[in-house]
């Protein structure tokens, strides 16, 4: 022990876990939007690599031998799916739906089907 600090350096791995809980859903939603707007290697790579450290670190702790089966369900359901996967799917899906709707409206406007801005032309 040096200077009153602990020698457990692995505790530093938990700082991203603490920040992932409040900010992770927003980051994953933004990555989902980025992937929907520009599909390719970089958005897909960032969508996998960015949440890897906080998710795997907590997974190692949550899925130790001797844990109850409910702990696994809580980890995968709440942390992996609820905080990481679901916001990405929502950001990606909503962006794809909006882009498809805009493309459909632009196609109808080019054909001359929509001239006004009323709800019947949306």
TrEMBL record:
Membrane-spanning residues: 12-33, 45-62, 74-99
Superkingdom of the source species: Bacteria
KW Membrane (keyword) present: yes
Keyword tags: Membrane, Transmembrane, Transmembrane helix
Name of the molecule in the record: Uncharacterized protein
Annotated organism of origin: Kitasatospora arboriphila
